[in-house]
């Protein structure tokens, strides 16, 4: 935990916006932790903000994220204690928090955090990276769960959502202000032109992210196998990321071993390796139906490299992507439809380029995200927090 610097007694300009960020950063690496880390770096570098960070890291590997485990309780209580000590040492400050998706165990975490911290932080900023809590509290929770969740997460000073189609989830909790702030990533090409690719006999299909049924890994795998039965050795799938469970890892490895080299797992990809894979790819496939999908960063990364994208009309994905012949929407359970999209994507990979990259540069760079996020934070504290 880092505390604000002690006052020096020297004349100063307007007081900085004091903010306690109660959220985890990598590892493990996933969209939410990556975006929190980027926000922290930007706010720390801006003299208009004074930031305290309490790292709510309850999981140390991807498959453990969101799962109930007794060993997480003590670190959670300890993190709440850190937040309260920071509040006593630093005075009034806003409280930034990322609510749970619509799953019972993470919701219980939210209850503990809010029971401990809400009385000491009257101004709360909730950043909704995951989807589903509003629907869970409305339709699935029992009366006690519904009442507690609404009372503890309700009436935040500011709710930040990723997309207008996802705003209903946060609106259930009646925030005083609700604003749209799309995700953003650094331009992996740093303004350089798109890489030139040689025409190849085998089309490289890339899947990035969590290796799970819900995210669409096995739909992609089955489609590649089907496409190769029609045209042998025409497609090769590379999956980069962690598996959601040992069972899914075993299932993938069995399929890879039987594929004759058409399916491979490159393991966890750091930024350098990920950019290498994106440069080499011809088509990006992500037919997700993950229940808590927000705004997948992997689709921003694919757009940055102008890759043809195969995905689903799920959650906020259609409003994230432009209307383009390089975008192929599929019904996730129809393997043949995904295989046909792979063939169309291969043709698009040889066609005119630049449309998806231009859409990325116009809407989803990290600089744009941080600018809008800072504006939203300042609007939430137009008057002095201590009043």
Protein topology:
Blueprint: E1 17-22, H1 31-44, E2 49-54, H2 73-90, E3 94-97, H3 104-117, E4 124-128, H4 133-140, H5 143-153, E5 158-161, H6 167-171, E6 178-180, E7 203-208, H7 217-230, E8 235-240, H8 246-257, E9 263-267, H9 271-280, E10 283-286, H10 297-304, E11 309-311, H11 317-320, E12 327-329, H12 335-349, H13 355-363, H14 366-380
Parallel strand pairs: 1-2, 1-3, 3-4, 4-5, 5-6, 7-8, 7-10, 8-9, 10-11, 11-12
Structure characterization notes:
With 387 residues, the chain is an alpha/beta fold. The chain folds into 2 domains: 184 residues, Rossmann fold (3-Layer(aba) Sandwich), CATH 3.40.50; 161 residues, 3-Layer(aba) Sandwich (Rossmann fold). It contains 14 helices and 12 strands. Strands 2-1-3-4-5-6 form a 6-stranded parallel sheet, sandwiched between helices. Helix 1 crosses helix 14. The protein is globular. The N terminus and C terminus are likely disordered.
Features:
387 residues, alpha/beta, Rossmann fold, 6-stranded parallel sheet, 12 strands, disordered N terminus, disordered C terminus
Radius of gyration over all CA atoms, rounded: 22 Å
- Compute the number of structural domains: 2
Indicate the mean pLDDT.
Answer: 91
> What is the CATH superfamily label of the largest domain?
Glycogen Phosphorylase B
- Write the H/E string, N to C: EHEHEHEHHEHEEHEHEHEHEHEHHH
Low-confidence stretches: 1-12, 383-387
Q: Which overall shape is indicated by the principal axes computed on the Cα atoms? A: globular
User: What CATH architecture of the largest domain would you give?
Assistant: 3-Layer(aba) Sandwich
Main sheet record: 6 strands, parallel
**Main CATH class of the largest domain:** Alpha Beta
H/I helix tally? 14
Oligomer: single chain
Name the strands of the widest sheet in spatial order: 2-1-3-4-5-6
């Amino acid at each position: 935990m880092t505390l604000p610097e002690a006052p020096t007694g020297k004349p100063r300009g307007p007081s900085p916006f004091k903010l306690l960020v109660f959220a985890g950063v990598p590892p493990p690496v996933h969209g939410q932790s990556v975006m929190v880390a980027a926000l922290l770096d930007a706010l720390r570098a801006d003299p208009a903000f004074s930031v305290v960070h309490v790292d709510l890291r309850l999981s140390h590997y991807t498959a453990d994220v969101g799962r109930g485990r007794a060993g997480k309780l003590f670190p959670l209580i300890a993190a709440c204690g850190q937040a309260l000590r920071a509040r006593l040492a630093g005075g009034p400050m806003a409280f930034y928090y990322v609510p749970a998706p619509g799953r019972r165990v993470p919701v219980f975490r939210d209850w503990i955090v809010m029971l401990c911290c809400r009385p000491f932080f009257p101004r709360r900023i909730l950043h909704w990276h995951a989807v589903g809590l509003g629907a869970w509290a409305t339709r699935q929770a029992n009366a006690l769960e519904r009442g507690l969740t609404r009372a503890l997460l309700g009436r935040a000073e500011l709710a930040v959502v990723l997309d207008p189609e996802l705003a209903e989830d946060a609106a259930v909790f009646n925030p005083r202000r609700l604003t749209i702030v799309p995700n953003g990533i650094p331009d992996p090409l740093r303004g350089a032109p798109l890489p030139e690719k040689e025409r190849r006999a085998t089309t490289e299909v890339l899947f990035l992210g969590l290796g799970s049924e819900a995210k669409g890994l096995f739909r992609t795998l089955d489609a590649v196998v089907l496409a190769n039965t029609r045209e042998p050795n025409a497609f090769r799938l590379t999956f980069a990321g962690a598996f959601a469970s040992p069972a899914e890892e075993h299932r993938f490895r069995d399929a890879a071993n039987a594929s004759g080299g058409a399916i491979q797992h490159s393991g966890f990809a750091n930024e350098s390796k990920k950019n290498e894979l994106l440069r080499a790819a011809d088509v990006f496939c992500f037919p997700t139906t993950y229940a808590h999908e927000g705004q997948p960063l992997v689709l921003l990364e694919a757009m940055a490299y102008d890759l043809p994208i195969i995905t689903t009309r799920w959650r906020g994905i259609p409003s994230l992507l432009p209307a383009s012949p390089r975008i192929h929407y599929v019904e996730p359970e129809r393997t043949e439809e995904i295989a046909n999209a792979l063939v169309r994507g291969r043709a698009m990979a040889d066609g005119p380029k630049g449309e998806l990259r231009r859409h990325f540069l116009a809407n989803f760079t990290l600089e744009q995200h941080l600018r809008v996020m800072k504006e939203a934070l300042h609007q939430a504290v137009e008057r002095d927090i201590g009043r």
